[in-house]
Amino acid sequence: MKFGNTILMELRNSWRGYFLFMVVVILISASFTQIYPSVAEAFDEDLDGAENVEVEVVDESVVNLSWTQHPGAVNYTLFVGRSPQMIVPFHVERGIEDTRFTITLPLEEEPEWYFGVLAVVEDEEVREEFVGMDTNVERKSAIEEVMGIDYSDIRGFLSVLWSMWWVLLIGLYIGYASVNTISKDYEERRMDVILSNPISRRQYLFEKFTVISAYTFFLLLVSALVTIASVYSLGELDTLPASAIFLGTMLSWPIFLVIIAVSFLFAIYFENSKKAVGTSFLVVLFQFGVHLVGDMAEALEYVKPYTIISYWNHESILYGEGANWGDIAVLFFIAALLTLLAHYVFEKKDIPT
Questions:
Q1: Contacting residues for 259 by C-beta, under 8 A, at least 6 apart
Q2: Is the C-alpha dihedral spanning 302, 306, 307, 313 positive or negative?
Q3: E strands, the chain, where?
Q4: Can you tell me the distance from the alpha carbon of 343 to that of 313, in angstroms, rounded to the nearest whole number?
């Protein structure tokens, strides 16, 4: 059989499903980034008036404070506490006539202090008006504490897109499509007819692999361009360059090559789509679960090297640290090894008639 006939036949039979899934991915890629401003605002945990107060830690116990001059202020009152609520302040300093103040605090292993400034204003009556509040530590939201993700940063927000659904959603679909492209030839009793033509099992497997892997590459390419356009529309390309989005998206391709290869292996081994799809899904879900647990629990971080997702270090790319090409090479090697194993099993299999 002439090279490419299997590719054309596969495209004729499956293009509708490929197209519909691509539309879904495009819509998610575009809409997800568009909700970033609303989510960032919701997770913005800056203290009230933090822009008006500056905290400079001189050493472990000495802190220099400065704040914006308040119109009509006669003097200022400084509140120091262990929480932003200041229910019971640790220290109160009244009658500060300047907008600068140096305070010495007790030495502690992990000092966390909050500084609130009130302006004392005299007109018809004496009253206090809030100037601002700041702290000597970097504040993190609860979700950032648990997962290390900063939702108020476009880089952290996009990392959520890739970490939470990218491999899971695309991986499950690619696994399903990869199994079906082999299993349907067994189940519809046409595998023996196909291989009775002048086509080797190697060529058959190679052309099937080419269709799925090329489709996945194109899917990622379109998604990268859509995401770049969406981030550009938000005016965030200064924070997150287009090159980082493009590279981070495209370097997920080797993960899906591994999923394609392992799905081919199960499809050939079981000769049954239900068993093969179920096993393929189990592998993808297990990989995703192990990676998620390793991300969320620091004590279990040692399990992450056992999942292929950890070899796609998209966070380092998003934050400008570059890609780990050694890890990417490992993924290509695993995909090649599994493809060779699938070919070996295929060669040993008797084809049912």
A1: 171, 174, 175, 178, 280, 283, 284
A2: positive
A3: 53-57, 62-67, 73-81, 91-96, 100-104, 114-122, 126-135
A4: 30
Does the global pTM surpass 0.85?
no
CA-angle at 240, arms to 238 and 242, nearest 5°? 95
The strands making up 73-81's β-sheet, listed across from edge to edge, are 91-96, 73-81, 114-122, 126-135
Give the span between the Cα atoms of 22 and 215, in whole angstroms: 9
Burial of 269 (0-12, 13-18, 19+ CB in 10 A): middle
pLDDT band at 146 (very low <50, low <70, confident <90, very high): very low
Determine the pLDDT at residue 109. 62
pLDDT digits (tens, 9 = 90+) for 314-331: 888 988 888 899 999 999
Confidence of residue 49 (pLDDT cuts 50, 70, 90): confident
332 close to 259: Cβ distance less than 8 angstroms? no
Report residue 72: phi and psi, to 5°.
Answer: 80, 5
Token pair for 305: 């090297």
User: What Å distances lie between residue 64 and 54, 77, 109, 124, 273, CA to CA?
Assistant: 8, 15, 19, 33, 68
